[in-house]
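A note on notation is needed here, since sequence and fold are reported together in a single record. The reader may check this reading against the record printed directly beneath this paragraph.
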Amino acid sequence: MPTRLLTPENTLWLLVAALGLWLLIQLGPILSPFLMAAILAYVLNPSVTAMQRYGLGRTLGAVLMICLLLLVVLGLALVLGPLFVKEIRLLAERLPGYLDELNGHVAPWLAQRLGLTVSFDAASAKALIGDALHGTQGLGMKLLDSLRIGGLS
């Protein structure tokens, strides 16, 4: 006798799982700080415990580890931020050449193999990137706004 996969009990569990998944998606912005805090606590706990073994209080050890983590994140942002901006500018400068290569190699291949007529327009792509970024200050402000919005959720 073949077993039925969709029994009333399985259907109930499937609906409960779907409702739980929907609830997690809806509460994602609210739950994300708690998830981040749990990850940080898990990662930093061994260092705080080691500091406690050496006679430092657990509270002071936790404060020191959080300060160290903030310094590392700030250092990474100060090093990687300008590199990111430089690479975005370089991409914007080289984009017309890349699009010309696409027009020269990929467009004929697509036309030959798939019968698609494609043209990559450098001016439109550059205008699109310019509108999206609004210079480096616009990019920075967008990132800061994103952090602010995420932090207030």
Q: What stands out?
A: The chain has five helices and no strands. The radius of gyration is 26 Å.
